[in-house]
Amino acid sequence: MPGPQPPAFQSSIQDGPGWETLRDDLQYANPFLQVHLVKVRTPTRPAGAPWTVVHRKAAAVIAPMTPDGRLLLIRQERIPIRAAIWEFPAGQIDTPGHPDDAAIRATACRELREEAGYEPGPGGELIAMGCFFSSPGFTDEHGYLFLARGVVPSAGGPMQDENESINEVRAFTPADLRRMIAENEIRDANTLSTFARMCALGLI
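RESULT FIELD:
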């Protein structure tokens, strides 16, 4: 019986100086992720270390800011944690391998439009804020962070796909988000990392 076939994407994380993949066995794959058993030589482990690695497509995370300085959050049901939580819009980048800047920005704008029903308005700007790894102990998944200033409602409103269940979009002040983070109301890595990066860069 044939084993699982990998989906049409590859990890953009590659070996570098001091790192060498000695073994890489695919265990499971679907269109959204791959599970691999690997053995990797590292700078301090020349014999190699065995590991289970989950490959996922990179994502774009976008913090939408209205012209009056409020930040938009979506309230989305998340089946793995059995809860609906407040988040910034985000979505996977469909470009195989390492996406270029145009593909990353296009994904950010697409997710803003589909999940929140907003788009950059006249004079608006999309500010890149680098990337982060969501959980590097087991996955290479990473997100590219953006602040979108001057967003306005899009003509068509939200256009969620069949795998999403977003039940509210609401604007909050930066002070509201600080309180929600402190009170553990906001607790997903995408939103926490994006807000931290905005603060560190002095953008809010």
